[in-house]
Write a structure and sequence with these properties.
Number of strands: 8
Subunit structure: Homotetramer.
CATH superfamily of the domain at 69-197: Thiolase/Chalcone synthase
Strand order of the largest sheet: 4-8-7-5
InterPro entries: Thiolase, Thiolase-like, Thiolase_AS, Thiolase_C, Thiolase_CS, Thiolase_N
Structural class: alpha/beta
Order of helices and strands: EEHEHEHEHHEHEE
CATH architecture of the domain at 69-197: 3-Layer(aba) Sandwich
Strand content: 15-25%
Main location: mitochondrion
GO molecular function, one term: metal ion binding
Shape: globular
GO biological process, one term: fatty acid beta-oxidation
Helix content: 10-25%
Largest sheet: 4 strands, mixed
Distance between the termini: 19 Å
Length: about 200
């Protein structure tokens, strides 16, 4: 399901000289369910956020091509999606999980789109709690959020996460469907973007 989104970079094994194609994040393959219940909470002694429900920091890179409608027409390009709006928001850093909630509300208001008209959400999960908070606060059905997995199960390429979730959102939408991607920026800030998939 990710084939159209990925470019595989060949890597030479320094020991054997063999050319390797990395097809998926190796970090998530080391998951051990027996160890999960024994991990200590990350933020408070009675907390539920642990290393098991927080994403690993992964290697990766992303690239997106962004252009104006006029420039796309001049170059005879057929954009796969159109940006309707975007927004930044921030809150107290201790409440970082709420930051995407504020950004999503603001971006949807800027687009004059009702949240019920959004077909799909990609919400970055540096911690699994972030999309859970968004689903609860915004009353989003679970079936619309991170439908193919998030950063905990797929990997979290630092510096490429925003492009990764936006790319996957666009590839997952059907023509004319509206999607929202949101990500924490650290320190209690977040960004959200509203897109519509173009007809090919």
């Amino acid at each position: 399901m990710f084939e159209d989104e990925l470019v595989y970079v060949p890597i030479i094994n320094p020991k054997t000289g063999e050319i390797i194609k990395i097809l998926e994040d190796e970090g998530v393959l080391k998951f051990n369910p027996e160890k999960m219940s024994k991990l200590r909470p990350a933020f408070s002694p009675d907390g539920t956020i642990t290393a098991a429900n927080a994403s690993k920091l992964s290697d990766g890179a992303s690239a997106l091509v962004l252009t104006s409608k006029d420039e796309a027409k001049r170059l005879a390009l057929e954009p796969i999606a159109t940006i309707i709006s975007f927004a930044d928001a921030a809150c107290d850093p201790i409440d970082f999980g709420l930051a995407p909630v504020h950004a999503i509300r603001k971006a949807l208001a800027n687009a004059d789109i009702n949240i019920k008209d959004v077909s799909m959400f990609e919400i970055n999960e540096a911690f699994s709690v972030v999309p859970l908070v968004c689903m609860k606060e915004l009353e989003i059905d679970h079936s619309k959020v991170n439908i193919h997995g998030g950063a905990v199960s797929l990997g979290h390429p630092v510096g490429a996460s925003g492009a990764r979730i936006l790319t996957h959102l666009i590839h997952s939408l059907e023509p004319h469907q509206v999607g929202v991607a949101a990500i924490c920026n650290g320190g209690g800030a977040a960004t959200a973007i509203v897109v519509v998939k173009n007809k090919h």
